[in-house]
TrEMBL record:
A GO molecular-function descriptor: DNA binding
Enzyme Commission number(s) of this protein: 3.2.2.-
UniProt-listed PANTHER family: DNA-3-METHYLADENINE GLYCOSYLASE
Taxon lineage: Bacteria, Bacillati, Actinomycetota, Actinomycetes, Pseudonocardiales
Pfam family of the protein (one): Pur_DNA_glyco
Keyword annotations: DNA damage, DNA repair, Hydrolase
Class of enzymatic activity (EC top level): hydrolase
Family: Belongs to the DNA glycosylase MPG family.
Listed SUPFAM superfamilies: FMT C-terminal domain-like
Classification via InterPro entries: Formyl_transferase-like_C_sf, MPG, MPG_sf
HAMAP family for the chain: 3MGH
Protein name per the record: Putative 3-methyladenine DNA glycosylase
Domain of life according to the entry: Bacteria
Length: 200
DNA sequence: AGATAGATGCTCT
DNA sequence: GAGCATCTATCTG
């Protein structure tokens, strides 16, 4: 199977991600995603070639790519690629359809009270995903984490704009979200803010 | 609303 | 050693 990350991003919007564990089941309807594609995309983890971390992004498609960032957060992607060009779609936000209580317990301080998961690290922890889920097949019915595909949304309901939180290629408009959804992360420009130089 | 600082550790150069 | 596909609390207007 081959699917371009941009097409995958469209298809993911409105789809439901289900995560089962001993603690319970959480279902989240995706409302915001962000596409990354290829070794010529400076913002992609694949920019400098294949490494142990980004290995999953080379396929197969439909698997989960989970990575650790900023020393404390995990982010989750769905792998999508064409013709050996690696890629993935970052899951940024969604509405909690079931398991809101568990979501609250997993991240008590997050805004939204368990009804929404705004922000990739919040969404990932809401689903209880970590290192051990990296590479899982989301299409396998036996998998504890599954993607329940929904009919494609009408294009008119989909908006797109610049990516969030990346220092390179910010202008690439590959962030997609459902128009009017309450579960969309607030835009923040990428890269750390440099401290002002001392004036002598 | 917007800006900022701090938390914290993996990954690659 | 530098740089992160971030979040939250705590300011300032």
């Amino acid at each position: 199977m081959a699917i371009d990350p941009i097409d995958l991003a469209h298809r993911l919007l409105g789809s439901v991600l289900e995560s089962r564990s001993e603690q319970g089941t959480v279902r989240i309807r995706l409302s915001e995603v962000e596409a990354y594609r290829g070794q010529d995309d400076p913002a992609s983890h694949c920019y400098r070639g294949r490494t142990p971390r980004n290995d999953v992004m080379w396929g197969p498609a439909g698997h989960l790519y989970v990575y650790f960032v900023y020393g404390m957060h995990f982010c989750a992607n769905v792998v999508g690629l064409t013709d050996g060009v690696p890629g993935a779609v970052l899951l940024r936000a969604g509405e909690v359809l079931s398991g809101a209580e568990l979501v609250r317990a997993r991240r008590p301080t997050a805004r939204g009270g368990g009804a929404v998961a705004r922000g990739p690290a919040i969404l990932t922890s809401a689903l209880g995903l970590g290192r051990e889920h990296n590479g899982m097949d989301l299409v396998d019915p036996e998998s504890p984490v599954r993607l329940l595909a929904a009919p494609a949304l009408p294009r008119a309901q989909i908006r797109n704009g610049p990516r969030v939180g990346v220092a390179a290629a910010v202008e690439v408009p590959w962030r997609f979200w459902i128009d009017g959804s309450p579960a969309v992360s607030t835009y923040r420009r990428g890269g750390r803010v440099r401290p002002r130089e001392e004036v002598v």
